[in-house]
Amino acid sequence: MITVFGSINMDLIATTERLPKPGETVAGNGFATAAGGKGANQALAARRAGRYVHMAGAVGKDAFAAEALALLDDAGTDLSLIKHVDGPTGTALILVGGDGENMIAVVPGANGQVTPTDAETAIGRMNEGDILMLQLEVPAAAVERALSAARAKGVTSILNLAPLIPDAPRLGRLADIVIANETEFERLAGQEGMDAAAREAALVRLHAETGQTLIVTLGGDGVIAIRDGAISRAQGLKIEPVDTVGAGDTFCGYFAASLDDGLDFVSALRRAAVAGSLACLKAGAQPSIPLSEEVADRI
Fold first, then answer.
1. Residue 242: DSSP 8-state
2. How do 53-60 and 28-36 pair as beta strands?
3. Residue 238, pLDDT above cutoff 80
4. 249 is a catalytic site residue
């Protein structure tokens, strides 16, 4: 079983020919809303990958709450660990340029009311050998408690080191598996401007220090990882991206689901990379997450 402990948002998405520069206003050419939040996105990805998933987090008592949970509910995700709190549901304001690149501002809302007690409740429902997936869009104290409780119970923890909050390097040391993009990994390693050789050397160094499994996503260049002393690589698909929002979350959810399904590490990386590529072919975070059959066809 997989439990995802994290954020639940409504995404408000505007599309433009190009992203604005600081202080600049550009004309938009489209607008949509979609359920999002890194936690909810990853939970839906793991569920669409075919695994049983609990989502733990919080929504507000507003008009966005039901819509933010709709796709998770439709997919059969267990929502019994989600609490409803006073105030607004978390919101993400997203600009997507014509080349598929994006800019995002996240307003935490109810996500800011997720507590260490919520973490203990979620882990209390888990068993040894289950998988816990976390991100950093809920308070750091809650994430830290979840990671500590998971380790004490023999639950495998996967931390997506995003967004890049000040506590990210410290919290990253507490997880069994860390997933980061290039920028996030540089912060974890304490080294900026890495080329490919420097990145691989940093992976080897950090792995030797911590024993953790470390995974770095590289966009169109695939993924590089280290586990049990061995470097692994995997490629996604060659695509023309429509919208990259949610691609990283799709990778994380499919990776966790693949491990939970018993796939070997390299096969799990490949499946997750292909799923992340497919998520770039549609607009929106959750609507773009592919079904397991789609990923299998492309593999």
1. S
2. unpaired
3. yes
4. yes
What are 40-59's pLDDT values in tens digits? 999 999 999 999 999 999 99
Can you give the pLDDT at residue 86? 96
Q: Which amino acid is at 244?
A: T
Task: Say which of 118, 130, 176, 249 is annotated catalytic.
Answer: 249
Nearest one of 152, 87, 77 to 114, comparing CA atoms: 87
When pLDDT is cut at 50, 70 and 90, the band that residue 88 belongs to is very high
Binding residue ranges for ATP? 181, 217-222, 248-249
Residue in this structure with the two tokens 């990853």, named with its chain if needed = 42
Per-residue pLDDT band for 241 (boundaries 50, 70, 90) equals confident
Binding residues: 9-11, 37-41, 137, 181, 217-222, 243, 245, 248-249, 279, 282, 284, 288
* SS3 state of residue 2: strand
Binding residues for K(+): 243, 245, 279, 282, 284, 288
Torsion sign across C-alpha atoms 193, 199, 201, 203: positive
**Taking residues 147-170, what's their average pLDDT?**
96
What's the rounded mean pLDDT across residues 61-80? 96
Q: Are strands 223-227 and 230-234 parallel, antiparallel or unpaired?
A: antiparallel
Distance CA 56, CA 122 (A): 7
CA 235 to chain centre: 18
- Taking alpha carbons only, the member of 141, 133, 283, 293 closest to residue 215 is 133
Cα(281)–Cα(5) distance, rounded to whole angstroms? 27
